[in-house]
Amino acid sequence: MKTGKFLSIIALLGFSVSVMATSVPEDKIDTLRLAPINVEPTPPAMQAVINTDVKQVRNYPMQPPVIPHKIDGYQIDLKVNKCMQCHARTSTGHSQAPMVSVTHYMDRENNFLADLSPRRYFCTQCHAPQLDAKLLVENDFVDIDHLIKANAVKH
Amino acid sequence: MLAKLFDQLKLVWKVLRRPSVHYSLGFLTIGGFIAGIMFWGGFNTALELTNREEFCIGCHEMENNVYQELQTTIHFSNRSGVRATCPDCHVPHNWTDKIARKMQASKEVWGKVFGTINTREKFEAKRRHLAENEWNRLKANDSLECRNCHNFDYMDFTRQSKRASQMHSTSLASGEKTCIDCHKGIAHQLPDMAGVEGF
Questions:
Q1: Are B198 and A85 inside 8 Å of each other by CB?
Q2: Which sequence spans correspond to the domains of chain B?
Q3: Predicted complex: ipTM over 0.95
Q4: Sorting pLDDT into bands at 50, 70 and 90, what band is B39?
Q5: What does the pLDDT look like over A101-110, one tens digit per residue?
Q6: Is some CB atom of chain A closer than 8 A to the CB atom of B72?
Q7: Cα dist. A39→A26, A32, A33 in Å?
């Protein structure tokens, strides 16, 4: 038993030494922060959220549409869901906002509920307002429509 | 003892009733006028003192709950640097309204003594009730306090977002709705809104 413990301690020590030896090179650490790990860079100025009220095209049919307006201070907690002041079925008359689609009233067995489904309650889990910021990471997503069109040209 | 006091009061009354021999009528009127101003001014100063934010957040009930929440909103810090303080939204600037509100405020001193909201839990439990008092007040005075700073006549719809101008040029312009109908929770967190119109 005692030797077992001793051996595992040795193994652990050896492992941690090997981790230190193969640590990530410095220029690979500062990927997104754009500064060495021991330096606190001045954060960039906060960007204003796009508030044009123009709906954006979805990249695929099941995508949660991005929010075309600002949502500063909109309270979403157990007490109240501010988004539903405009997006609930009964509110769209006065707000002229699109109603949350029927999927927001469905539970995972596809039963329709009378009220918002709990799994769709916290809107900002899936929907986000947008910034007019430059991409930090290259995105090579291609819309399926482009693929189809590209194929159509070849024929 | 009581009889003696009564006698003294009688004497004072007699002096007061006697026509003035030593002071001219002019002195009395002008003196009275000045005294009146001083009294009125003092009263006003006392009101001004209780009309400052430091006074409001002197009570931990106000400081720990609503004041903390206010600090994260646009009415605390914004690009224009205009700051809305508690009395800007909660005590009417108009003189008569001011006094009426102060009389109601005595209820708050009562609440302080008996601790109706002296913990966060008690505050949250009572919050819907307190908020409703404020909504009713703002609804009744057509959101007077908001309009002290935000004047509808000078709103430039072309500079507002589409959602805002759409609403302001219809329901607000027609007088069908007032600011507080649409802008609840602009300065503090909202209570449980179940059953509130529009939610």
A1: yes
A2: 27-141, 151-183
A3: no
A4: low
A5: 999 999 999 9
A6: yes
A7: 12, 13, 10
